[in-house]
Amino acid sequence: MIAMALGSLFSLLWQPLLARAMGDALLGLFQNFQSVTRLGGLGDFGITAALGLKVGTLLGRGDESALKSLLASARTLFLFIAGALCLLLIALSPWLPTWLGFENVPGAGSMMWLFVYGGLSLALMIVSGYFASLNYAHGTVTWPIFPGILFVQVLAPFFHWRLALLQMPLWIQLLPYLGSSLATAFLGWRMLKWSHPWLGNLRPLKCDRKEWKSLSGTSWWAYLVSIGSTIYFTSDGLVIGAEFGTDAVPRYRFNYRACELLITLIVTASFVGLPKLTQWISSTQEGDRRRLLTEMDRLSKFEIVLTCFATLGYLALNNLFIYVWVGGHYQVPLAWQFAFACNLAVTCCGNTGIQMSMRAGNKGLKWAGIVVALTGLVNLALSILSVKLGSIGGVAVATVVAQSISSITLGAITCRYLGLPVGRWTARCWVLPIAFTAIAALLKHLFPRDSFSHLGILTGCYAALLLAVCWLAGINGKLLRTEWAQLKMMAGLGGRN
């Protein structure tokens, strides 16, 4: 969490510098190109996520022989897909900018070379995904964070900024990100070799159709999850840019940036516990199932309280944050901020149910893929309708509606698989955060100024509101004492076991 928070702070540092060096139009083009490359990352057809799930399941069952056979075939498949997609994007690079509606704004340079860069970046992303999924499935989740911060959050943006000041073409400005991805992929592989040597083997390579079919069966549904998730994160800027121009994108993205960073921080903090939960839910031991229910409930409470705290901070301080960070002319109405805050609340509070639904038996991933993909399309359709009606804020509301459907439905799937009460889970993971965010936004409406008096009143009201949420979420003295004991042990202050 500390590492991710540092990475978030660095990303906030670079945004205003890049905005001044590039200008709104070129910055909006860069942000939309990032969205397109993220969509391009769907070209792995879900095998990265599928591999992580299957490796976690086999580790939980202790089937090392089957795992080695799976990895030999997976390596071949990853290399084939990475090479094929790289060559395809390079071949289509003269026409892709026109097909995707990318206008050549001043300072952008060659659009063709921009998409050649995209092809190389995509291939590297897929190869890197193989090592990342194995590190994650085996629980190596701490050390891989640090190269990402150093190379992706510090060095690459620094050289991007320097190249932008020199007014280099956009595709040249992005080359540092390609170098950082290469360094991160190499270190991901080395960490795998250091921690679990045989998992980091690059050979043998095997073309086993049975293994490919098994992996494809899982990857298809994981692919649908990736499609839906990517639509959530990338469609907003593309839709707004297509209707209002790319110079309208930074204002929207800047005000959502704090929520996006908070979502990343909370979900990542929760994500490190999922490898063990995956192994426990796949285990046939009764003790593992009991521990699963206990730790899943604990994780959900952690997410709810941390999310509510983050939501309060966002609503209270976003205007002041935007004023200091990039300037007052980027501030937006409270209605936009309320929609952004609702998305933060719904996404993070329902995250445990969403993640565990993908691990809920043989059909869990199937249902997760269908639900996330369909709600992603709902989000896209409502966003397009919103901009056609002339509303940029409605794009954020569309995301809240789609994410709410996904959270409620997948939470119900998890509850039915584990025998938990659906109504209670929905009340805690959706009704509570939505009601909480609405009350917090109303208080901000009543005390809107960034003065000491208004912020002081809000602080008092928000503190009382947070205590109420803790009580309703089931945070009690016993849980707090357990968490404190865990922190002491992590810090080396808990004595010997």
- Secondary-structure element order, N to C: HHHHHHHHHHHHHHHHHHHH
Largest sheet entry? none
Number of structurally distinct domains: 2
- Give the averaged pLDDT, no decimals: 81
- Number of helix segments? 20
Large-scale geometry: globular
Structural class by helix and strand composition: mainly alpha
Keywords:
single chain, 497 residues, mainly alpha, globular
Describe what this molecule looks like in 3D.
The protein is mostly helical. It has 2 domains: 207 residues, no CATH class; 269 residues, no CATH class. The protein is 81% helix and 0% strand. It contains 20 helices and no strands. The model has no long low-confidence stretch (mean pLDDT 81).
Summarize the structure.
The protein has 497 residues and is mainly α. Helices cover 81% and strands 0% of the residues.
